[in-house]
Amino acid sequence: MTGDGRRARRVAELIRTHLAELIRRDVDDPSLAALVITDVSVPDDLGVAWVTVKLLLGDDDVALRKKTLRAVGRSAPRLRRKLAPRLGLRRVPDLRFSYDEGHDATRRVDELLREIDDERGDADEQGAADEQGDE
Question: Best exposed site among 62, 67, 76, 97 by fewest CB in 10 Å?
């Protein structure tokens, strides 16, 4: 039996909403205070919820990212237990966390485009200087 994914999307959105509230209210770890859930994806079998997170503060610090992922990973079983009554499912999906590096990739592409633009500008200036020298 294959579905069109509507149930999985609905469950993912419920997980995102309730998980954000649980992290904000019930997790005592201060390293998770600036944690934001950017996306939750759940396959049709509802076995695993892939939760993508991001830090509001300290986003550039790779060590802090790893520490935060470890902390939220340690909290996953407790969060899953607290999600169970809110979701009303027979079996609550396992929670797997990963860091959202989408913004980092965008920032890197912007840097590369700026470098290319600068190189083109330097080449245009060099070409204009060569033309003036020919006259």
Answer: 62
